[in-house]
Write a structure and sequence with these properties.
Chains C, D: InterPro entries: 3-oxoacid_CoA-transf_B, CoA_trans_fam_I, NagB/RpiA_transferase-like. Chain A has about 230 residues and is an alpha/beta fold. Chain A has 7 helices and 11 strands. Chain C has a single domain, classed as Glutaconate Coenzyme A-transferase (3-Layer(aba) Sandwich). Classes of the chains: A alpha/beta (about 230), C alpha/beta (about 220).
Chain lengths: ~230, ~230, ~220, ~220
Amino acid sequence: MIDKEVHDAGEAVSGIENGATIMIGGFGPPGQPVALIEALLNRGVSDLVVINNNAGAGGDAISRLFGAGRVRKVICSFPKAIGSTVFDELFLAGKIELELVPQGNLAERIRAAGAGIGGFFTKTGYGTELAADKEVRLIDGEHYVFETPLHADFALIRASRADRWGNLVYRKTARNFGPVMAAAAKVTIAEVDHVVALGELDPEIIVTPGIYVDRFISTGYAPTNPKVTS
Amino acid sequence: MIDKEVHDAGEAVSGIENGATIMIGGFGPPGQPVALIEALLNRGVSDLVVINNNAGAGGDAISRLFGAGRVRKVICSFPKAIGSTVFDELFLAGKIELELVPQGNLAERIRAAGAGIGGFFTKTGYGTELAADKEVRLIDGEHYVFETPLHADFALIRASRADRWGNLVYRKTARNFGPVMAAAAKVTIAEVDHVVALGELDPEIIVTPGIYVDRFISTGYAPTNPKVTS
Amino acid sequence: MRLSRHQIAARVAKDIPDGAYVNLGIGVPTLVADYLPEDREIILHTENGMLGMGGAALPGQEDADLTNAGKVYVTEEIGASYFHHADSFAMMRGGHIDFCVMGAYQVSARGDLANWRTNSTTSIPGVGGAMDLAAGAKHVYVVMDLFSKTGESKLVQNCSYPLTGAECVERIYTDVAVFDVIPAGVRILEIFDDLDAGQLSTLVGFTLIDATTSATVRN
Amino acid sequence: MRLSRHQIAARVAKDIPDGAYVNLGIGVPTLVADYLPEDREIILHTENGMLGMGGAALPGQEDADLTNAGKVYVTEEIGASYFHHADSFAMMRGGHIDFCVMGAYQVSARGDLANWRTNSTTSIPGVGGAMDLAAGAKHVYVVMDLFSKTGESKLVQNCSYPLTGAECVERIYTDVAVFDVIPAGVRILEIFDDLDAGQLSTLVGFTLIDATTSATVRN
C-alpha cells in the first residue's frame, strides 16, 4: 500500500545533506513550506544551493537560512525585499553567490528539468546582461537565448490538500512554483494543510499527481487570513 | 462585454481559408471536435495541413476530410488505424504528405509554440530515422535532438463546458491535446457540450483559461456512452 | 500642466480596449486598474498565476494565498482562473497577453526598455518578470515621469542603464506627453504640459515627430 | 514448455514492485494488468493523460471520454488523476515512469529496441509514444515471443528493423526465457523451455551469459 504521509517535518527533511541543491516553493509567502524550511534549519545542514523566486524576502523562514549561514548560492529572480537586509548584507559582503534569472526562465528551466528537456531557446533576456555569454540563435527572424534545465536534489513545496498517494491540490496563487518544482527534483517533499481520503480529490482537479511527490506532512492548518500566517 | 459563444459551427469555422494549417484535438474520438470538423468539410476549403495525433483513424470526421481531398499534409504520430483505408490509399499513392512525429515530440512542439519557445532538445528519437538530419547535441553525457515549435493558423478542439469568457474544462482522457493546441494557434475554436454561467466554473479547476479561446459553440450534448457518439 | 500619477494611470486606462488581457506592473501601472472604464470587460493577469484578478482585498478580508505580483493581497473576479508559474509565464512569453504596462528608468528612441536595475554597485539586482513581459507581451506600454528628479530626460537616444529588453516598447505615457515608438523615431501623440513639439524635443534632447492634433484632449 | 501470452504477462507482473508507476503498451503488455499481485498498489499510466487507470470498461458501461492508449474503453481507479498530453509526455520523458512494458519486433544485444515499423514499403508508419517511453522510462521492459513465425530470433546482435530507441531495453520477457541486457552482453535470468544456456545461445545466434540458478522457478 502506498502512503506517502510522514509524521513530522524532521522526518520529512531527513536525507538532505550538506551541499544539496534545494528548490523551495512559494512566490513570497503563498506556497512557501514554512514548516519544512524550519525543519531544514533545525537539521543544521549547510553549503546549500537554494532555488526560490524571492529568496531573501524579509524576515521569513528562507531568510533565516541565509542568516544562519547555511546557503552558499541562491538562484532566483527577485532577491530584493522591502524591510529585508539579511540577504543584502551577505551579498554585498561576497558571502553568498547569486544567479539572477528572469522569472519566466526560472519557471521554464525548472519545467524543462521535470520534462526531460535538455535545453531550450527563449526570447526572454536577449540583448541584456542576464544573457551575456549565452548561446544565441536567430529563429524565424527573431533572436533567442539558449537556457538549460534546472534540476534539484530536493524540492520543498506547499499545497492545500493531499491524499495518501501524494496527489496534491493548491489554493489560489499559492500554486505558483509547486507543480513544476515537484517534477524537477530527485526527491519532492510537500507540506499540506490537510490530508484527505484517497478518492476525495476529484481526478479532474488534481494539479500535482502523486507520481511527483515522495513524501508529505500535514500541518492541519489552513491559512485564510494573512495575520494567521505571519 | 466578452461573449465568445457563436451560434453555429459554420460561423465558428469562418475565416479558415485554403492552405491553412489546422490543429485538431483528440486522441482518437475522445476530444475530437466532430461538429467543427463537419463544418470545415462543408466549408469546402482545401490544401490544408492537419496536425492531429491519430489523423487517418477509421471512418471518423477527419478521415472524411482526407477522402474529400482537402488535406495536403498531415503531421501526426499514428496515422494507422484498424478498419481505415482512406489515409493508407492516399499515402501509398503519394497524394498526401506525412510528417511522422513521436507523440511526445508532437505534444511538446505544440506546447513550445504556445509558450514562446524557439526550439528545444529532447532525447526522444535520438538514433532513429525520425531524427535523421536533425541537429543533435551531447548534454551531460546524453544525446539530444533539436525539435522546433509547431504553430497553427487555427486550432479546433473539444471540451466539456465553457463560460462566456471561453474558460474551458474537459472530461477524463478527452482533455488530451486540447489545452496545448489552444495556446499554439493564432485562432482557437472550441466545441463544448454545455455553456455555463460565468463564475460557475471553479477558478481552481479551469484547465484552459479563456485567453486561449477565440470563440466556441455549444452542442448541448454530453456523450457518456460511446454508442451515442459513433 | 503635468499629469499626476493618477492622471497618467487614467490616461493609460482609456487606451485599453474591451476584452483585453492585461498585465499591470508594480507602482503606477497598478493604479491603471482603478480607472478602467466600467463598460469594458478587461481581464487582468498576474504573473504569480491568475487571470481575472480583482482589486486589493479589504482590510480583514485578505486571503493569505491570494496576492498579486507585488505581494499585495488582492481579490478574484467572477470568471477568474488559477495556474502554475510555468503556465503563467508561458502565457506571457507565448504572446498571449495583449497589453503589459510597466514602469521604467529609461526608454530609448528605438524602444529599448531599462527598468530592472540602475548602475549602482551597492544595490541588489532583481529582475522578476520584467524581461518576460518585455519579450512576450503583444503591446508593451511604459508609464513614467518624463524627467528624473535631477531633471534628466528618461526618454533617451540610448539607454545608459542595463536593458530589460531591446526594441520592445510601443508606447510611453508620461506626466508631460504620450509617445509612440515607430520605425522613424519617437512620435508625440499628446502633450499635456504647456509646451510645443519643438520645446519638448529640446527638453528630451533629440528630435521628436509631432503627431499631436487639435483634436487631442489636453487633460 | 514455452509460455503462453498470458503466462508471459503473469511473469512480468511478478517483477513490478508495490508503489510502482507503470505504463503498459498495447497487446501482451496490456495483459500484465490482469496479473498484478492483489497485495501491491501499482499505479498505471496511460499516455493519453491519466494516472490510476483501471481495467477495461464493462459492456454498456463505457464512457466515451475514457479510453487507454489503444483506444479501448477503460475505467478509473480511486486516486486517479487526469492531465493534458504535454503533461502526460513530460511525465514519460522526464524519467518519472518507473516501468514501461512494450512489445517489440527486435531487441539487440545492446538493448536497442525496434518496435515501430518493419522494413515493409507498403505499410503505413506509425510511432505513437514508443520513442518517448524508450527514451524516458526508468526501466524499459520488453515482452515478445523469442522467435518470429518463420523461426528467426527476435533477440539479435544488431536490429535490422528501424530503431525506436538505442540501448534502452533493460529486460526482455519471452515465451522461452527472461533476459537482462547488461554491459557485458545479454544475460539469461530464467529459461522456461527445456533448453540449457548453450542451446539457447545457439538458437539466438550469439553467446548469452548464463545467470539462471537452481532457485529459478520454471513455470
